[in-house]
Amino acid sequence: MPSQSRTLSLCLLAAATLSSLISCQQLNPPKKVEETEKPKAKVRDQLVGVITSVNKDFVLIQKYGAWNVPEGDIVFSRGENGQTANLAFSGETLGQFIAADIRSGTATLKDGVYWRQVLDQEATTISPNTAPGKPNPTIN
Question: Which CATH class is domain 42-120?
Fold first, then answer.
């Protein structure tokens, strides 16, 4: 009965193959689908001045135009060789000059002073009613 032994051999081979596939599947469980990441806040760095004097704990900044930086916003300096310093506006002004405390980092003469604006995510979202190319809804 060679056909029965051949059938039995094929069945045993199929069972062994199937069991090895199942065990391999258990060793490598399927990866979890990661939740979609929240969109990162959009930021814009605006040059607002230059450092004209550096002391131990504070700097003098010559502002470029009107100083429209809200209190508590991020202000930092960045030099030509990559060094940065976090600055805090102290509230003291004299004409076109502003004093700022050095919170961390290294500030040097002629470093650019930047204001980091965090743009509102919801303000940059386009709704279907205001998408470009769509007529504005009319109010009756």
Answer: mainly beta
